[in-house]
Amino acid sequence: MNLEKKITEIKSRPNLEFGSIFNRSIELFKKIWVQGFIALLLTFLTILPFYIILYIPMIATGITDPYALEHDELPPMVTVAMGILSPIVIIGVSTFSLAINAAFLRICRQKDEEKDGIDDYFYFFREGRIGKVFILALYIMGVALLGMLACGVGLFYVIVPLSLLPAFLAFSNELSAFGMVKASFILGNKNWLIIFLLVLVAGIVAELGLLLCCVGIFFTAMFSKVPAYFMYKDGVGFEEDTYLN
After folding, report:
1. 211 φ/ψ sector (left φ>0, alpha ψ -120 to 50, else beta)
2. What local confidence, expressed as pLDDT, does residue 68 receive?
3. Whole-angstrom Cα distance, residue 189 to residue 105?
4. Helices in the chain by DSSP H: which ranges?
5. Sign of CA dihedral 128, 171, 174, 144
6. pLDDT of residue 97
């Protein structure tokens, strides 16, 4: 399905329903909370090296000159080096997190439709797919930056279409990165309030794990990602022949 057909399909479908999506998200999460925990753990493990890279200048300075870090301010060279590395780290973290998030949504569909198959958390790291994920991550950062430049109000608005992008990556991989962004804005604009409320409420529910000695958050955090699967399913729909593409 090309972009034009995708947009036509989005416009022709009924508006999203909060109650239906939220209730189904809870029922599905009961089946895939273990996969959610694994996805969260893999996200931490894959982005950890980027944070280590960010602190390499500080670590190197501490080894070569331990007294340099005793002051309240970092040495100028360390500050400059960390400033140069920061964009690389942000892009790397965004790319890897997006890839695993999209793979988790594919697993959500697999469990929802009760299809056999392995839980493929690294689907987007193979066969050259990571390149498109990287480009999409750049778009996400660009859109978020534009939102912040609009006195913060713009960021409040773009939260909705940005929350849909992992689902478009997971299920509309035939589209270009720009096509995914455009389609997500169309679906987001059509159902902005419903999607915003779902993102907000799902985020609050995901944080309930903090009540279980804080450890529970690792098992509930990924619930916030599940509604995006049903938003796409109801708002765009699937093509059966694209299930394993």
Report:
1. alpha
2. 63
3. 22
4. 3-12, 18-54, 56-64, 76-112, 129-149, 153-171, 177-190, 192-206, 217-220, 226-235
5. negative
6. 96
